[in-house]
Amino acid sequence: MRKTLLVLFLVAAGSGQAGQPGEAVANARSGSAAVAPGGEKRFDETSADAVVDVRFSGQPGAVLNGRPHFVTIGQALAAAPAGAAPYRLFVRQGRYYERVTVTRPNLIIQGGGREETLLTFDACSDTRNPAGGTLGTWGCATLMVRAPGFAASDLTIENGFDYPGNARKPEEDSTRIRNAQAVAMMLAEGSDEAVFRRCIIRGFQDTLFPNAGRSCFDSCRILGHVDFIFGAGQALFSGCDIVSRDRPGKNPAGYITAPSTLASYPYGFLFLRCRLLKESPEMAAGSVRLGRPWHPHADPAVSGSAVFVACYMEDHLGTEGYAEISSSDSTGKKIIYAVGPDSRFFEYGSYGPGALITAQRPQLTAAAAAWYTPEQLLRGWQP
Predict the structure, then answer these.
(1) Residue closest to 93 by CA, chosen among 185, 141, 28, 43
(2) Which residues lie across from 51 on neighbouring strands?
(3) Nearby residues of 271 by Cβ (< 8 Å), 6 or more positions away
């Protein structure tokens, strides 16, 4: 691969200050001439095609300062012109309670700060759909992307379903949700070349679902506990904070990844110079697994891949490293999948108190690690 591309990704990854707790990335402010660490210019509302402001009280699409204004992201998408030309939305600071589905190519969303601009909804797998069934894991996402060329930066994407509150309800409580998967963001069929920069992606079980195409997550903060990064897509995580949330009384407390990569694809998830952190200092040492090999519908064509290269790891990760997972085939037969021939989980250059080398945590050789690069995983696409 070209050295320039490798340097680009290593510089971006280094901006997260791996191995040092705390936040390092400043938030953008709406209306300001924001510049990212490293000198990258961010567009603001003066160069946007439309502005979204939860406090806007005019008619949807009313033009102010030369740009149409909307109160919701959904309104702005509905009014976007057809075609494949890039269309830029500036979303001002505020809380946007809505579910958003993107079907327009080359949509770009710039938030007013990743702590200050929040897209949230609280649907889960058992939420009822209009047809009388349930949304399921594939239909409950707060943000669903079904088109190529999507980009988002400087905002939080959240599934606000109250997993902890639901888990505290007694088993006999009729209001207790049985299927608590709650996706914050899904890349579905049609998505490819999706980019997320300086975003927070937050939930509990099944937070981030990159299930299609290629995607890049740069300097993002991703939070959850059970299988909270999962799916069949090819995703690069560069300089991200991967934050495990606790599940009191559960052992393991969580699983970071559940890839379902097709065996015909050599790459699935690549974590490059990320920090694997725990949200609470009280989280028990060794209570979280790096992943488990998800096989949707017991699909034999699946061989999940998640590889961690030069990542800092706190002590919530322990000697076991990975866990088995079960799936049922079309006849209802339950099949157990363990890490090994049914999966491709590896580490190289891990460091920190949770970076333990054991028989249960497969390591790459230097020669093998050289194949796990952004260019290889993204098949030549340069975000």
Answers:
(1) 28
(2) 69, 90
(3) 237, 240, 242, 306, 307, 308, 309, 311
- What CATH number should be reported for the domain holding residue 146? 2.160.20.10
d(CA 111, CA 58): 21
Q: Are 19 and 312 in contact (CB under 8 A)?
A: yes
Active-site pick, 154, 206, 241, 246: 206
pLDDT value, residue 27: 33
Three-class SS of residue 177?
A: coil
Residue from 227, 241, 246, 342 carrying the catalytic annotation: 227
Determine phi and psi for 7, rounding to 5 degrees: -60, -40
What are the backbone angles phi and psi of residue 45, rounded to the nearest 5°?
A: -65, -20
Residue 77 within any structural domain of the chain: no
Give domain status of residue 366, yes or no. yes
Q: Tell me whether residue 227 is one of the annotated catalytic residues.
A: yes
In tens, the pLDDT along 298-333 reads 999 999 999 999 999 999 999 999 999 989 888 888
The reply to whether 93 falls in a domain is yes
**Quick check: is 220 in a domain?**
yes
Based on the residue annotation, tell me whether 154 is a catalytic residue of this protein.
no
Q: What's the number of domains the chain is made of?
A: 1
Residue 195 domain boundaries: 3-41+86-378
**E-strand stretches of 104-244:** 107-111, 117-121, 143-145, 151-153, 156-159, 185-187, 194-197, 200-202, 208-210, 214-218, 221-224, 226-231, 234-238, 241-244
pLDDT band at 37 (very low <50, low <70, confident <90, very high): low
pLDDT above 90: percentage of residues in the chain? 82
Choose the most confident range, by mean pLDDT, from 5-9, 19-23, 127-131, 144-148.
144-148
For the segment 186-190, the average pLDDT, to the nearest whole number, is 98
What letter does residue 27 receive in the DSSP assignment? P
d(C-alpha 243, C-alpha 70), whole Å = 33
